[in-house]
Amino acid sequence: MSRAGGRRWFVADERGVAMVTVILMGAALAVMATTTSVLAVRDLRSTTGSTNSVKALGYAEAGLQRFLRELKLGTYGLAPMLKAGCSTPPVRLAEGRIGDGTYSAELTVFDASTTPQVPPPWTGSATTAGPCGTARFTPPNPAPKVPWTYAVTATGRSGQATRVIRAVVTVSASGLPVGVFVNKVNANGNPSFGNISLFANSDVYGREKMTFSGNDLQYTMGDVYRELTS
Questions:
Q1: Residue 212's closest CA among 187, 184, 229?
Q2: How far, in Å, CA of 4 to CA of 135, rounded?
Q3: Whole-model pTM?
Q4: How many CB atoms are closer than 10 A to CB 198?
Q5: How far apart are the first and last CA of the chain?
Q6: Per-residue pLDDT tens for 167-197?
Q7: Which H or E run contains 131?
Q8: Strand partners, 198
Q9: Do the beta carbons of residue 111 and residue 165 sit within 8 Å?
Q10: Which CA distances in Å does 122 have to 30, 71, 88, 99?
Q11: Is the peptide bond before 90 cis (omega within 30 degrees of 0)?
Protein backbone atom coordinates (compact mmCIF):
# COMPACT_ATOMS: atom_id res chain seq x y z
CA MET A 1 0.00 0.00 0.00
CA SER A 2 1.26 3.49 -0.83
CA ARG A 3 0.14 6.90 0.31
CA ALA A 4 0.68 10.24 -1.44
CA GLY A 5 -1.25 13.52 -1.27
CA GLY A 6 -3.71 12.09 1.20
CA ARG A 7 -4.75 9.31 -1.27
CA ARG A 8 -4.21 5.64 -0.97
CA TRP A 9 -3.84 2.97 -3.66
CA PHE A 10 -2.92 -0.69 -3.75
CA VAL A 11 -0.47 -2.54 -6.02
CA ALA A 12 -1.96 -6.04 -6.69
CA ASP A 13 0.15 -9.15 -7.34
CA GLU A 14 -0.56 -10.09 -11.05
CA ARG A 15 1.73 -13.11 -11.25
CA GLY A 16 -1.24 -15.53 -11.08
CA VAL A 17 -3.02 -13.74 -13.94
CA ALA A 18 0.03 -14.05 -16.16
CA MET A 19 0.22 -17.80 -15.46
CA VAL A 20 -3.44 -18.31 -16.37
CA THR A 21 -2.91 -16.31 -19.57
CA VAL A 22 0.06 -18.47 -20.54
CA ILE A 23 -1.92 -21.64 -19.86
CA LEU A 24 -4.86 -20.42 -21.97
CA MET A 25 -2.55 -19.47 -24.84
CA GLY A 26 -0.82 -22.84 -24.62
CA ALA A 27 -4.16 -24.63 -24.71
CA ALA A 28 -5.26 -22.58 -27.72
CA LEU A 29 -2.03 -23.38 -29.53
CA ALA A 30 -2.42 -27.05 -28.68
CA VAL A 31 -5.97 -27.05 -30.08
CA MET A 32 -4.77 -25.34 -33.25
CA ALA A 33 -1.91 -27.80 -33.65
CA THR A 34 -4.25 -30.78 -33.11
CA THR A 35 -6.80 -29.40 -35.56
CA THR A 36 -4.10 -28.84 -38.15
CA SER A 37 -2.83 -32.38 -37.67
CA VAL A 38 -6.33 -33.85 -37.98
CA LEU A 39 -7.01 -31.87 -41.13
CA ALA A 40 -3.66 -32.88 -42.60
CA VAL A 41 -4.33 -36.56 -41.89
CA ARG A 42 -7.84 -36.25 -43.32
CA ASP A 43 -6.53 -34.58 -46.46
CA LEU A 44 -3.88 -37.28 -46.81
CA ARG A 45 -6.49 -40.00 -46.47
CA SER A 46 -8.74 -38.23 -48.93
CA THR A 47 -5.89 -37.93 -51.42
CA THR A 48 -4.95 -41.58 -50.94
CA GLY A 49 -8.58 -42.62 -51.35
CA SER A 50 -8.95 -40.59 -54.53
CA THR A 51 -5.74 -42.06 -55.92
CA ASN A 52 -6.88 -45.60 -55.12
CA SER A 53 -10.27 -44.88 -56.65
CA VAL A 54 -8.71 -43.77 -59.92
CA LYS A 55 -6.36 -46.76 -59.90
CA ALA A 56 -9.23 -49.17 -59.17
CA LEU A 57 -11.14 -47.80 -62.15
CA GLY A 58 -8.08 -48.29 -64.34
CA TYR A 59 -7.71 -51.87 -63.09
CA ALA A 60 -11.38 -52.57 -63.86
CA GLU A 61 -10.92 -51.28 -67.41
CA ALA A 62 -7.82 -53.45 -67.77
CA GLY A 63 -9.82 -56.48 -66.63
CA LEU A 64 -12.55 -55.69 -69.15
CA GLN A 65 -10.11 -55.37 -72.04
CA ARG A 66 -8.34 -58.58 -70.98
CA PHE A 67 -11.63 -60.46 -70.91
CA LEU A 68 -12.72 -59.14 -74.31
CA ARG A 69 -9.39 -60.20 -75.76
CA GLU A 70 -9.76 -63.71 -74.40
CA LEU A 71 -13.31 -63.76 -75.72
CA LYS A 72 -12.18 -62.89 -79.24
CA LEU A 73 -9.45 -65.52 -79.09
CA GLY A 74 -12.05 -68.17 -78.31
CA THR A 75 -10.51 -69.03 -74.97
CA TYR A 76 -13.83 -69.87 -73.34
CA GLY A 77 -15.75 -71.43 -76.22
CA LEU A 78 -19.40 -70.92 -77.02
CA ALA A 79 -20.96 -73.71 -74.97
CA PRO A 80 -20.17 -72.24 -71.50
CA MET A 81 -21.48 -68.84 -72.63
CA LEU A 82 -24.90 -69.92 -73.88
CA LYS A 83 -26.64 -69.97 -70.49
CA ALA A 84 -23.95 -68.32 -68.38
CA GLY A 85 -25.42 -67.13 -65.10
CA CYS A 86 -28.74 -68.93 -65.74
CA SER A 87 -28.41 -72.71 -65.68
CA THR A 88 -24.62 -72.67 -65.85
CA PRO A 89 -22.09 -70.55 -63.89
CA PRO A 90 -20.91 -67.20 -65.25
CA VAL A 91 -17.85 -67.34 -67.46
CA ARG A 92 -15.12 -65.91 -65.24
CA LEU A 93 -11.70 -64.45 -65.93
CA ALA A 94 -9.06 -65.56 -63.46
CA GLU A 95 -8.12 -62.72 -61.10
CA GLY A 96 -5.18 -60.73 -62.36
CA ARG A 97 -2.79 -58.34 -60.64
CA ILE A 98 -1.39 -55.01 -61.78
CA GLY A 99 1.01 -53.28 -59.42
CA ASP A 100 -0.69 -53.12 -56.03
CA GLY A 101 -4.17 -53.77 -57.39
CA THR A 102 -6.25 -56.60 -58.82
CA TYR A 103 -8.92 -57.07 -61.46
CA SER A 104 -11.54 -59.69 -62.23
CA ALA A 105 -14.33 -60.07 -64.78
CA GLU A 106 -17.27 -62.32 -65.54
CA LEU A 107 -19.80 -62.79 -68.34
CA THR A 108 -23.54 -63.46 -67.99
CA VAL A 109 -26.50 -63.37 -70.34
CA PHE A 110 -28.13 -59.98 -70.89
CA ASP A 111 -31.54 -58.84 -72.07
CA ALA A 112 -32.36 -55.13 -72.09
CA SER A 113 -36.11 -55.86 -72.19
CA THR A 114 -36.17 -57.68 -68.85
CA THR A 115 -35.90 -56.69 -65.22
CA PRO A 116 -33.29 -57.34 -64.06
CA GLN A 117 -31.31 -57.21 -67.26
CA VAL A 118 -28.68 -59.64 -65.96
CA PRO A 119 -29.16 -62.76 -63.83
CA PRO A 120 -28.94 -62.39 -60.05
CA PRO A 121 -25.68 -63.46 -58.38
CA TRP A 122 -24.89 -67.09 -59.15
CA THR A 123 -25.70 -69.42 -56.25
CA GLY A 124 -24.88 -72.71 -57.92
CA SER A 125 -28.39 -73.47 -59.13
CA ALA A 126 -30.47 -72.58 -62.17
CA THR A 127 -32.59 -69.44 -62.17
CA THR A 128 -35.38 -68.10 -64.37
CA ALA A 129 -35.15 -64.48 -63.22
CA GLY A 130 -34.70 -61.67 -65.73
CA PRO A 131 -33.05 -62.70 -68.99
CA CYS A 132 -32.93 -66.35 -67.87
CA GLY A 133 -36.68 -66.58 -68.38
CA THR A 134 -36.74 -65.30 -71.96
CA ALA A 135 -37.33 -67.38 -75.10
CA ARG A 136 -33.69 -67.28 -76.12
CA PHE A 137 -33.18 -70.82 -74.81
CA THR A 138 -36.04 -72.45 -76.70
CA PRO A 139 -35.66 -74.22 -80.08
CA PRO A 140 -34.13 -73.58 -82.56
CA ASN A 141 -31.60 -72.18 -80.12
CA PRO A 142 -28.86 -72.62 -78.90
CA ALA A 143 -27.61 -71.88 -82.43
CA PRO A 144 -26.68 -68.15 -82.16
CA LYS A 145 -27.63 -67.15 -85.69
CA VAL A 146 -29.33 -64.08 -84.29
CA PRO A 147 -26.79 -62.05 -82.33
CA TRP A 148 -27.07 -62.48 -78.59
CA THR A 149 -26.04 -59.97 -75.98
CA TYR A 150 -23.97 -60.62 -72.90
CA ALA A 151 -22.93 -58.44 -69.99
CA VAL A 152 -19.26 -58.39 -69.02
CA THR A 153 -18.82 -57.06 -65.49
CA ALA A 154 -15.27 -56.10 -64.51
CA THR A 155 -14.14 -55.22 -60.98
CA GLY A 156 -10.96 -53.35 -60.07
CA ARG A 157 -9.54 -53.07 -56.55
CA SER A 158 -6.81 -50.88 -55.11
CA GLY A 159 -6.37 -50.53 -51.37
CA GLN A 160 -9.84 -50.00 -49.90
CA ALA A 161 -11.27 -48.73 -53.18
CA THR A 162 -13.39 -50.90 -55.48
CA ARG A 163 -14.78 -49.88 -58.84
CA VAL A 164 -17.11 -51.90 -61.09
CA ILE A 165 -17.81 -51.30 -64.78
CA ARG A 166 -20.06 -53.22 -67.15
CA ALA A 167 -20.00 -53.55 -70.92
CA VAL A 168 -22.64 -55.15 -73.12
CA VAL A 169 -21.20 -57.23 -75.95
CA THR A 170 -22.82 -58.93 -78.92
CA VAL A 171 -21.92 -62.48 -79.86
CA SER A 172 -22.95 -64.06 -83.16
CA ALA A 173 -21.84 -66.76 -85.56
CA SER A 174 -18.86 -65.78 -87.67
CA GLY A 175 -20.32 -67.29 -90.82
CA LEU A 176 -17.62 -69.96 -91.03
CA PRO A 177 -18.86 -73.55 -91.37
CA VAL A 178 -18.48 -75.65 -88.25
CA GLY A 179 -19.82 -78.93 -89.66
CA VAL A 180 -17.85 -81.63 -91.46
CA PHE A 181 -18.29 -81.52 -95.27
CA VAL A 182 -17.26 -84.51 -97.38
CA ASN A 183 -18.04 -85.90 -100.83
CA LYS A 184 -18.55 -89.47 -99.72
CA VAL A 185 -18.51 -91.44 -96.47
CA ASN A 186 -17.39 -95.05 -96.12
CA ALA A 187 -17.10 -95.78 -92.40
CA ASN A 188 -14.99 -98.83 -91.69
CA GLY A 189 -14.36 -98.01 -88.04
CA ASN A 190 -16.55 -96.45 -85.37
CA PRO A 191 -16.14 -92.68 -85.62
CA SER A 192 -17.78 -90.49 -82.99
CA PHE A 193 -19.01 -86.95 -83.56
CA GLY A 194 -19.70 -84.65 -80.63
CA ASN A 195 -21.65 -81.38 -80.99
CA ILE A 196 -21.03 -81.26 -84.73
CA SER A 197 -22.88 -82.15 -87.95
CA LEU A 198 -21.77 -84.23 -90.92
CA PHE A 199 -22.71 -83.25 -94.48
CA ALA A 200 -22.05 -85.42 -97.53
CA ASN A 201 -22.61 -84.73 -101.22
CA SER A 202 -22.91 -88.43 -102.05
CA ASP A 203 -23.62 -91.75 -100.37
CA VAL A 204 -22.93 -92.48 -96.73
CA TYR A 205 -21.81 -96.06 -96.08
CA GLY A 206 -21.62 -97.47 -92.60
CA ARG A 207 -23.93 -94.90 -91.04
CA GLU A 208 -24.78 -97.39 -88.28
CA LYS A 209 -21.13 -97.38 -87.23
CA MET A 210 -21.06 -93.63 -86.62
CA THR A 211 -22.10 -92.15 -83.28
CA PHE A 212 -23.42 -88.59 -82.93
CA SER A 213 -23.85 -86.95 -79.55
CA GLY A 214 -24.91 -83.52 -78.36
CA ASN A 215 -26.18 -80.63 -80.47
CA ASP A 216 -24.46 -78.76 -83.25
CA LEU A 217 -24.11 -75.19 -82.00
CA GLN A 218 -24.39 -73.86 -85.55
CA TYR A 219 -26.96 -75.99 -87.33
CA THR A 220 -30.41 -77.38 -86.55
CA MET A 221 -32.49 -80.03 -88.28
CA GLY A 222 -34.44 -77.25 -89.93
CA ASP A 223 -31.29 -76.14 -91.74
CA VAL A 224 -31.16 -79.51 -93.50
CA TYR A 225 -34.80 -80.48 -93.72
CA ARG A 226 -37.07 -77.54 -94.43
CA GLU A 227 -40.15 -79.27 -93.07
CA LEU A 228 -38.54 -79.31 -89.64
CA THR A 229 -38.14 -76.23 -87.49
CA SER A 230 -35.87 -77.56 -84.79
A1: 187
A2: 114
A3: 0.61
A4: 16
A5: 120
A6: 999 887 666 566 788 888 898 888 888 878 8
A7: none
A8: 180
A9: no
A10: 55, 20, 9, 29
A11: no
